[in-house]
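Comment thread on ticket #2218

A.B. wrote:
> Attaching the input chain for the structure job we discussed in standup.
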Amino acid sequence: MPPKAESSEPPDGFCGEKRGIVPPPGKCGTKEWKSPGGEPPSPCLEGSLVQISLREEKGYAVVAVGGRLDALTAPEFETRGVEWLLAGHIRLVMDFSSLEYVSSAGLRSVLVVLKKAKSVGGSVVLFGLSGVVKEVFAISGFDSLLPVAENEAAAALVAGA
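C.D. wrote:
> Ran it. Output below, let me know if you need it in another format.
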C-alpha cells in the first residue's frame, strides 16, 4: 500500500500563519483580533507575517496593520478591509506605523479597499507611514492617490469623523 500523502494544510486548530496568512478572529499571542461578524476566537500560531486588527472609535474605525503586506498577505488584508466596509465601518483610518514592508500586491490591495470604500460612500485615510513603506508609497505615487495624515487624530478629521 502506498504511503499516505501529506496534507499541505496546517493541522486542525491552527490558522494559516505557516503560510503567511493573517490569523483568524480571536486571540493570537498578545494581539486581540476582531472580525466584523464577531466570529468566536480561533487558536493560531505566533509569528504571522502580517497582523491586522480593527478598533472602533466614534465616527471611524482604526485598522492597524503590522508586519509585511505582500503577495502572501495582501489577499487577507483586502478581504478583511472589504468585509469591514460592508459591515458598516465606512470610515477607515489605517495605521501603518507597524508595517515594515509593502509590495506591489500590497499596494493593489490598499487600492481595492479604497475603491470599495468610495463605492459605499466611505473613505480610507492612512497614517504612520515611515521608512521603506513611506518610500514605496511615494515612489509609486500612491501617496497622491489617497490621503495620508501624520497621526490618528488628523486622519480621523480627513476621513470625516
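A.B. wrote:
> Thanks. Noting for the ticket: Residues 1-47 have pLDDT under 50 and may be disordered.
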